[in-house]
Specification:
Helix content is 46%, strand content 8%. The chain is mainly alpha-helical and 118 residues long.
Length: 118
């Protein structure tokens, strides 16, 4: 169930070392096979990383996620998903406080009110 509760991400636009999961899983299988066929005491070190030749930055990833969520919305979602990338920590904290912390405090206060009926 997609509730759409995450509204803001506090990130800069930096390059990511992203490797598809099928590449990593194939690498694990190949490394396990190689280790099983090697003599006892052998040591192998494998790296499965991307390169800086075709970097992927955070804005590309968030754009792809945003696009996917908008076009493949769940029928059980509580609200329309929307994520805003915020680059400075103070703005992020202020937005989180206004949209999550204050409503939660209000709900807690409301829940603790004594019953006012007869």
């Amino acid at each position: 169930m997609m509730l759409g509760l995450v509204k803001y991400l506090n990130v800069g636009d930096f390059n990511l070392d992203v490797v598809p999961v099928d590449y990593v899983s194939n690498m694990i299988i190949a490394a396990t096979s190689k280790l099983g066929q090697s003599p006892t005491g052998s040591f192998f070190l494998y790296h499965c990383t991307s390169t800086d030749m075709c970097p992927c930055n955070f804005s590309i990833i968030t754009g792809a996620i945003r696009s996917y969520v908008r076009t493949n919305a769940s029928i059980n979602q509580a609200q329309k998903p929307s994520i805003t990338v915020v680059n400075d920590k103070k703005t992020y904290e202020a937005l989180q406080y206004m949209t999550i912390d204050i409503p939660m405090l209000v709900m807690e206060k409301y829940a603790n009110l004594p019953y006012l009926g007869n």
